[in-house]
Structures are given as structure tokens and as C-alpha cells.
Design a protein that fits this description.
CATH topology: GMP Synthetase, Chain A, domain 3
CATH architecture: 2-Layer Sandwich
CATH superfamily: K homology (KH) domain
Shape: elongated
Distance between the termini: 64 Å
Number of domains: 1
Order of helices and strands: HEEHHEH
CATH class: Alpha Beta
Length: 140
């Protein structure tokens, strides 16, 4: 099975959905933040290993403790995943921090700041409303 085959893409998405569900509903570790998301999963073509990209809403300390909690619960997560998803091999899960959501929020804030600065510099004068061609009672 190739890395980008349709089958591998479907397996990645199903493992991501089920892993997210197990973490949110069944995992009782207090170190795992309730605002934890599994953003992406990459299962190896041989189904032996998988990388789970984890994002946590909050600071980097919350992300660190969440990754510790998930790593210690890897056996439980793997067993539950094997029970739910019928694969030949249940992959060993490696948790990787994903900061793409935080990066996107930061970029969005920067774009909003630039737009606000641009609008504050360019304040239209009263005669600059875009109606120059319609003065004098001309109709369109």
C-alpha cells in the first residue's frame, strides 16, 4: 500500500476520528487537557506505526502535560483502537505536538491588525465617497 493511496487516506481519517473519540470520551487521565484535538494522523503503509498530531487550546505547559498523559495512556489507547477499528496490525502511536491551530490564530490576529492600521491611515474625505459621476442630477 502506497503512502498516498485512497486506502491509506481512509485509514488515516478513520484512526484520527476514533482516536479523537477515545481521548474525549473514555480517557480519564487528569493530565490530558479537555480541549485536546487530534488534528492529523499518519499511519505507516505497513500499519506498524502511526504519528498522531495533537493540538491543545491553551499554553505550551498544557500541551506538555497532555502529551505526557497521552504517552502514558498509549497502551490503553492502542487497545481501544484495536477493539474499534479492524486492522491487520494495530499501530504503535507516537504523539507529536501540532501548533498549526495556534499559528493560524496568530496569523489571523496579525492580518486584522494590519487591516485596522490601513483603515486608520486612509480615512475618506467627504467628497471622496465614490459618487463623483452622479453629481448634477445625472441619471444612470
Amino acid at each position: 500500500m502506497r503512502k498516498n493511496s485512497i486506502k491509506n487516506i481512509r485509514i488515516n481519517e478513520e484512526v484520527r476520528r476514533q482516536l479523537q473519540e477515545i481521548i474525549m470520551r473514555q480517557l480519564k487521565d487528569p493530565r490530558v487537557d479537555p480541549m485536546t484535538s487530534v488534528t492529523k494522523v499518519e499511519v505507516a503503509p505497513d500499519l506498524k506505526t502511526c504519528k498522531a498530531f495533537i493540538s491543545v487550546l491553551g499554553n505550551s505547559e498544557a500541551l506538555g502535560t497532555t502529551l505526557e498523559g497521552l504517552q502514558s495512556a498509549e497502551g490503553y489507547l492502542r487497545r481501544e483502537l484495536a477493539r474499534i477499528v479492524n486492522l491487520r496490525n494495530t499501530p504503535q502511536i507516537r504523539f507529536i505536538p501540532d501548533d498549526s491551530i495556534a499559528y493560524g490564530v496568530d496569523m489571523s490576529k496579525k492580518i486584522d491588525e494590519v487591516i485596522a492600521q490601513d483603515e486608520s491611515r486612509h480615512v475618506p474625505s467627504p467628497g471622496e465617497s465614490g459618487e463623483e459621476g452622479l453629481e448634477g442630477g445625472a441619471t444612470v
